[in-house]
């Protein structure tokens, strides 16, 4: 029996304390009901689902506006700044597993950006020539030297703007002719060596047959003399 509301002096129950206890119990019961977790895991279902198609009307203040899309934007993929630096440290090896000496760049080609070496610049220009259809002009903006992280044109290699003169074209033509001449001489020497080997392989059996014929003739003459 709860005697918290009993007054032992008068021997009676205090009604004020009884009402307070009732209110407190009612308040605790409401709090327990509100804080009870919902363990129902069923997904909510829309009760007003319609089996008919409901058209949607677009309301706009500018009915003549049209959404324009740039097809070139979807084709060009974003590039990371200074991605050419990933090509540094890559070397080509010949059949003897020796490093092939890289070509020397003209003095007019100068690198731009932090840590741009001649090997990285050569790889970047070669990559641009094989993967891009745009002309290679270098970084045309002069501000790229001050802050390359902001003004860098990712579609161009990491080099300053340069011009190809007629003298450069003439020197390149002479170099190509020299290389072609060396290649022609090497092919001719290889072909002559191959022909000589074939002639040796064919001539050896013929000489052997001639020697055998001469021996047989000599034996035949000796038999006739006897």
From TrEMBL:
Gene Ontology terms for molecular function: methyl-CpG binding
Region entry Disordered, spans: 200-226
Cross-referenced Pfam families: MBD_C, MBDa
GO cellular component: nucleus
Span of domain Methyl-CpG binding protein 2/3 C-terminal: 97-187
Domain Methyl-CpG-binding, first and last residues per copy: 23-92
Gene Ontology process terms (BP): DNA methylation-dependent constitutive heterochromatin formation; negative regulation of transcription by RNA polymerase II
Record protein name field: Methyl-CpG binding domain protein 3
Top-level taxonomy: Eukaryota, Metazoa, Chordata, Craniata, Vertebrata
């Amino acid at each position: 029996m709860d005697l918290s509301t009993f007054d032992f002096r008068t021997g009676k129950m205090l009604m004020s304390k009884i009402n307070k206890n009732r209110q407190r119990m009612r308040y605790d019961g409401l709090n327990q009901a509100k804080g009870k977790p919902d363990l129902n895991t069923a997904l909510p279902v829309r009760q007003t689902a319609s089996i008919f198609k409901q058209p949607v009307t677009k309301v706009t203040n500018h009915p003549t506006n049209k959404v324009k899309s740039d097809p070139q934007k979807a084709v060009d993929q974003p590039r990371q700044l200074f991605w050419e630096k990933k090509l540094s440290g890559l070397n080509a090896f010949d059949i003897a597993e020796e490093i092939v000496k890289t070509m020397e760049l003209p003095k007019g080609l100068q690198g731009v950006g932090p840590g741009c070496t001649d090997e990285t610049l050569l790889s970047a220009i070669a990559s641009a020539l094989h993967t891009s259809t745009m002309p290679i002009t270098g970084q045309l903006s002069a501000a790229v030297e001050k802050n390359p992280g902001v003004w860098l044109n990712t579609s161009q290699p990491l080099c300053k703007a340069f011009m190809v003169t007629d003298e450069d074209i003439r020197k390149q033509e002479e170099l190509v002719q020299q290389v072609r001449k060396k290649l022609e001489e090497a092919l001719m020497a290889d072909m002559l060596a191959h022909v000589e080997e074939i002639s040796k392989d064919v001539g050896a059996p013929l000489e052997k047959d001639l020697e055998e014929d001469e021996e047989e003739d000599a034996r035949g003459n000796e038999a006739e003399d006897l």
